[in-house]
Amino acid sequence: MTDKELLTIEVRVLLMKCGYKKLIQALSEVKNDSIEKIEEDLRKLELLKRNKSKPHTRSIDDIVSKIINDNPEKADQLHRLAARYENKTFLSQLRDARQFLERNSVNPQVPKSRSSAVSQVFRTLASLDISQLEEYLVTSGTGTDNALSILSDQIMGKRHK
Questions:
Q1: CA spacing 20 to 30 A to 6: which of 33, 89, 142, 150?
Q2: C-alpha–C-alpha distance, residues 16 and 26, integer Å
Q3: Residue 44, CA distances (Å) to 35, 49, 50 in order
Q4: What is the pLDDT along the chain (161 residues), one digit of tens a residue?
Q5: Cα distances (angstroms) measured from residue 8 to each of 2, 11, 31
Q6: What are the two backbone dihedrals, phi and then psi, of residue 114, each rounded to the nearest 5 degrees?
């Protein structure tokens, strides 16, 4: 058991035994601080804890809007691809996003989740020609070839990218 876990247990026992007010009063006396100061410190700690537990994630709209500002001529295509990405009809799985990035990026960073790949995927899309973006809009489903479609194309004798 760690020191932190042991301390937590001891504080819980004290809370049950003495109550919140008496515990705060005792802490105030030991620290030579006012009860208000102790309670204010506790509020600050709680606020810090809440802020740490919620990592700030930008929405797909925020990310895509920023990229579109730099590439206004591709706005329509990027908006439509963003909608498809969001409803998982384009690059529906992390594996698809990784394959897309490997196929189109010089040095892709490995995303750990589909949502963390958004920025990199749309920066890569923005670097493509409008005709290539239109191809992704026309393709069925994921926009990348999955293992089953590759195998199917090979069986049927179709040329694969």
A1: 33
A2: 15
A3: 14, 9, 10
A4: 899 899 999 999 999 999 999 999 999 999 999 999 999 998 988 888 877 755 556 788 888 889 989 889 999 999 999 999 989 899 989 888 888 888 887 666 778 888 888 888 999 999 999 999 898 888 754 444 555 666 666 677 765 54
A5: 10, 5, 19
A6: -60, -40
